[in-house]
Amino acid sequence: MTSRNTVLVAGSANLDFVVRAPHIPAPGETVLGGDFRTFPGGKGANQAVACARAGGARTRMLVALGVDAFANPLEESLRAAGVDARIVRVPDEATGVAFICLSADAENAITVAPGANSRLRAADLPELSGVSHLLLQLESPLDAVLAWARAARDAGVRVVLNAAPARPLSMELLATIDVLIVNEGELRAIAGEGGISAAVARLAGIDVIVTLGARGSCAHAQGEWLLQPAFEVEAIDTTGAGDTFCGVFVAALAQGHEFADALRRASAASALACTRLGAQSAVPAHAEIDALLVAGRPTSLVALRRYCGLE
Predict the structure, then answer these.
(1) Is 15 labelled a binding residue?
(2) Can you tell me which residues bind substrate (predicted)?
């Protein structure tokens, strides 16, 4: 029997156009920015790079790219990280791009033009031999995401959905998910308003992880709550930190780590990603995560428990 230890990421790749500015513009406001750079990005590609480079897992990716110069750095970044990419070429669409304003306090505002990403279809999913986990996001067409999740579930592959960007999800899609990863805004879009614990309770039957930025993360898995404080770092750019979390978490699961240990590794990886510019360029090496797990200082567990409404 073929062993299953490979992660398949199906999703988006974008070339990120990043401008640093004192603050993110308000509607109608023009802000004089500073440095401008381009970085490989896109939620799917970011997560695939994190899974391979930081997580150390065998990683494949389904991705759609145009036939243009923007595709080249995206392909090179995936290849350099060790990701085995199945590329769907879309000659009549541009490669996806994202326009990012990065503020002095490390926050960002992002606008995405999906381009070729919007042309992925259900039939593009590669065969699943050797795949233990399928990692999905919502920058691909929803009908394709649903079809991929169903195919994986039927093949005995565990399905992890990072429900970003935020949008309501059908019960049909939720029924195919083993693990749901969301931030607070994404949780509200799916489960409605209210505290974290109350919203998660509405998603019975799914293991749910809620990422909480500098506070850390909490999870409800196998019927119990798990709390993972963040690691203290000096953040300069939070772009892609959530994607790094997702990729490293799923890589850890694929390698046999327990859920709580996978959370801890993902938290360390996302903290390190905040200390560098860019998305894929900020993904740490596997050894850097190991070092932070030994020497890092976590934030308050008591404050995290209180914030999640678990007291």
Answers:
(1) yes
(2) 14-16, 42-46, 139, 243
- The count of domains in the chain is 1
Q: Is residue 184 within 8 Å of 192, Cβ to Cβ?
A: no
| Per-residue confidence (pLDDT) for residue 190, from 0 to 100 | 96
User: For 174-232, how does the pLDDT look when each residue is reduced to its tens digit (9 = 90+)?
Assistant: 999 999 999 999 999 999 988 999 999 999 889 999 999 999 999 999 999 999 999 99
Rounded distance, CA 302 to CA 5, Å?
A: 36
Does some domain include residue 36?
A: no
Rounded CA separation 40/15 (Å): 5
Question: Is 235 assigned a ligand-binding role in the annotation?
Answer: no
143 annotated as ligand-binding: no
Model's pTM, two decimal places?
Answer: 0.94
Q: Is 243 a catalytic residue?
A: yes
On whether 183 is known to bind a ligand per the annotation, the reply is yes
How far apart CA 230 and CA 297 sit, in angstroms, is: 8
CATH number at residue 140: 3.40.1190.20
CA distance 36 to 278: 11
Residue 158 has phi, psi (to 5 degrees) of -75, 140
Q: Which residues on adjacent β-strands are paired with residue 274?
A: none
Q: Which pLDDT score is estimated for 2?
A: 52
- The C-alpha atoms of residue 283 and residue 272 are separated, in whole angstroms, by 8
The answer to whether 223 is annotated as binding is no
Between CA 248 and CA 55 the distance in angstroms is: 5
Over residues 234-258, the pLDDT tens digits come to 998 888 999 999 999 999 999 999 9
**Catalytic one of 35, 178, 243, 290:** 243
